[in-house]
Amino acid sequence: MHTSTAQSGFADVLIGTQFGDEGKAKAVDHLAAQYDVVARYNGGNNAGHTIDTHKGRFALHQVPSGVIYDHVQLYIGSGCVVNPAKLLEEISSLEKVGVSVRGRLTISPFASIIQPSHILEDGVTGGAIGTTKSGIGPAYADRARRTSLDGQVVNLRAVDLLNNPGRVQESARASLAEVISRYSIPGINQEEMMRAFREACDGIREFVTPSPTFLVKKADAGSKILFEGAQAALLDVTSGTVPFVTSSSTVAGAAFVGGDLPPRYHRRTIGVAKLIMSRVGNGPFVSEFGGRRSEEYCDGKAHTRSYEESTYPDPRSLLRSGDPFEVGVALRMLGGEYGSTTGRPRRMGSFDLESLEEISRMNAVDALYLTKADLLTLFSETLAGTIPVTSYYDRVGTSEDSAPRPIVEHRVGFNEDITGVRSIADLPSAMQDLIDMIEQRSGAKVEGVGVGPKREQLALRS
Ligand code: IMP
Fold first, then answer.
1. Least confident of 56-60, 79-83, 442-446
2. How far does the centroid of ligand 1 lie from the alpha carbon of residue 348, in Å?
3. How confident is the model at residue 400 (pLDDT cuts 50, 70, 90)?
4. Which among 69, 200, 370, 440 has the fewest CB atoms less than 10 Å away?
5. 370-399 pLDDT per residue, tens
């Protein structure tokens, strides 16, 4: 029987509680120094985190956010899908600013490889969901389908790069040809695509471990592990806003499947919630400013950041608009809310407490980090001058297919500059009241509040 030893390590799990882009990297960046390993358990390069550090600004997609701490080991678990070329690009952009992952990054043998065929297929089929077109859905689908093509298993795992790199190429080539023919995709240079894929596969091989117990051994040796969820609870493939979700399990429990660690090591769960919500891609968003009009406006490529900057040269004046859609535009522009992976405009909405309560209970969230509190001062410039919070849903008369109506509570606003505040106790009383309400409803303790984009701009519980 396996018994715990005194020096046994543990794992905490950090998740996004909304639609992604909550600012998880900021919380991870703050917490990571306390851990020995930061590990991903789901998703691929559809994730995008931007962190500002003294070493420069990083855009992370697949490398876990603990990367800037030299002592932290980085792990990409079997629940992830890996794009080899994008991973190498990310590694080299980190190296350019003096951050190396060599000897620190380990990929699970069972992580699946995103193939050229997956990216092409997502480009054709991902539009209805509004995917990032990174090939995520097709890669997970191939894993689940367990099919073979021309005698080769279609799903490719990282361990195949070690054991049979030739087979990887043959299989990926067959899959590419099949997808091109299935969707009649014109103008593809298959040779060039396969050459780039082969080189990238060769480049990531050094990071792949053959051992399925890599992380278990670390935990047994006393390592403290932080699982960093990608995307967020409302995008979970099973319990999110299906079908407008990503294709992996994003909830806290999934860390102990996709992270290659048994659940006995779990210690606590940390949630991250943004105080003005956003969503990229299609699907329900109960508290959205401007509702359907906003969803349609943000769909597609037309309304980029530069389009909005030239169309609305004075976003502050839009804050005083009586039209919630325009208030949403102003919040997006003033908050810089554009997708870090795709550049798409994010749909904006009020803080949804009803949803946070449910997600916190479903995941037993122990601690919360709230982000972008500094932006709440923008509401003092609106007609109402109050902070809108979606407190409850009105489901009376709604069917399963129709969205519930948000019951919006108008909370007292504040306009003090809080960007220099470092202790939760020093935040304005209106903000403290909001925190109290969030703690009561979620059952979680608020441990940190983001008050600006820089890494040190975090107010903590003293
Ligand atoms: P996919 O993950 O690329 O298949 O996209 C599915 C849905 O998840 C789309 O609505 C995407 O916009 C959304 N999504 C995927 N990754 C992220 C993320 O990291 N942040 C926010 N939304 C995401």
1. 56-60
2. 15
3. low
4. 440
5. 999 999 999 999 999 999 999 999 888 777
Q: Is the CB of 258 under 6 A from ligand 1?
A: no
117 CA from centroid of ligand 1 (Å): 19
Given the residues 12, 29, 36, 49, select the one marked as catalytic: 49
303 is catalytic: no
Q: Closest residue (by CA) to atom 2 of ligand 1?
A: 246
Residue 20, ligand 1, Cβ within 6 A: yes
Tell if the pTM clears 0.70, that is, is over it.
yes
Per-residue pLDDT of 264-318, as tens digits, reads 999 999 999 999 999 998 999 999 999 999 999 999 788 999 999 999 999 999 9
User: What's the pLDDT tens digit per position in 30-77?
Assistant: 999 999 999 999 999 999 887 777 777 778 999 999 998 999 999 999
Confidence band for 6, pLDDT divided at 50, 70 and 90: very low
Pocket lining: 231 vs ligand 1, CB cutoff 6 Å: yes
SS (H, E, C) the chain: CCCCCCCCCEEEEEEECCCCCCCHHHHHHHHHHHCCEEEECCECCCCCEEEEECCEEEEECCCCHHHHCCCCEEEECCCEEECHHHHHHHHHHHHHCCCCCCCCEEECCCCEECCHHHHHHHHHHCCCCCCCCCCHHHHHHHHHHCCEECCEECCCEHHHHHHCHHHHHHHHHHHHHHHHHHCCCCCCCHHHHHHHHHHHHHHHHHHECCCCCHHHHHHHCCCEEEEECCCCHHHCCCCCCCCCCCCCCCCHHHHHHHCCCCHHHEEEEEEEEECEEEECCCCCCCCECCHHHHHHHHCCCCCCHHHHHHHCCCHHHHCCCCCHHHHHHHHHHHHCCECCCCCCECEEEEEEHHHHHHHHHHHCCCEEEEECHHHHHHHHHCCCCCEEEEEEEECCCCCCCCCCEEEEEEECCCCCCCCCCCEHHHCCHHHHHHHHHHHHHHCCEEEEEECCCCCCCEEECC
pLDDT digits (tens, 9 = 90+) for 147-184: 999 888 999 999 999 999 999 999 999 999 999 999 99
Distance 281 CA to ligand 1 centre (A): 7
